[in-house]
Amino acid sequence: MAFEAPVTAAIQIAAAVLLDGAGKVLLVRKAGTVAFMQPGGKIEPGEYPMEALRRELKEEIDLELGADAFTYLGAFSAPAANEPGHQVCAEVYVARITEPVTNRAEIAEMIWIDPATPPAIQLAQLTEYHILPALLAAGTFRGTTCLQ
């Protein structure tokens, strides 16, 4: 059994479930890490979650969306994938996109996955055990009927 550091600190983040027209979800992997996760990042002091999310999407994948493009999925917590001993507390939003995305900043790799049958890649615990199941429970997302 692998040793896991005790969780000692919480990191407040905002994350996006970005869906393409086929219902696939965009996941990213940051440079120097192995786990794939939703794009997004830390909420800075004095910043609202939606402000942080929109800033992070521009920085990470060169995507600019208005706040009205998002639907709130929920708040979830899990051990941080890239910071041992920390817990992430995530405000998660869903948006359907048709715009192209480009990996920038610390993003090393992007992949589009079917959320019902993710490929055999390492996923962040927040993604695997909380966000994807919540998305699946929210309803159908093939075509244009998901979370509108």
Describe the structure in brief:
The protein has two helices and six strands; from the N terminus they run βββαβββα. It is of the alpha+beta class.
Name some characteristics of this structure.
148 residues; two-stranded antiparallel sheet; disordered C terminus; four-stranded mixed beta sheet; 2 helices; alpha+beta
Question: Based on DSSP secondary structure assignment, what is the total number of beta strands?
Answer: 6
Structural classification: alpha+beta
Radius of gyration from the alpha-carbon trace, in angstroms: 14 Å
| Termini separation | 43 Å
Helix content: 10-25%
Instruction: Please tally the helical runs, counting DSSP H or I stretches of 4 or more residues.
Output: 2
- Order of SSEs: EEEHEEEH
Parts with pLDDT < 50 across at least 5 consecutive residues: 142-148
- The whole-number mean of residue pLDDT values reads 90
What does this molecule look like?
- Helices cover 18% and strands 32% of the residues.
- The chain is an alpha+beta fold and 148 residues long.
- The strands form two sheets. A four-stranded mixed β-sheet has the order 3-1-5-4, with helices on both faces.
- The radius of gyration is 14 Å and the shape is globular.
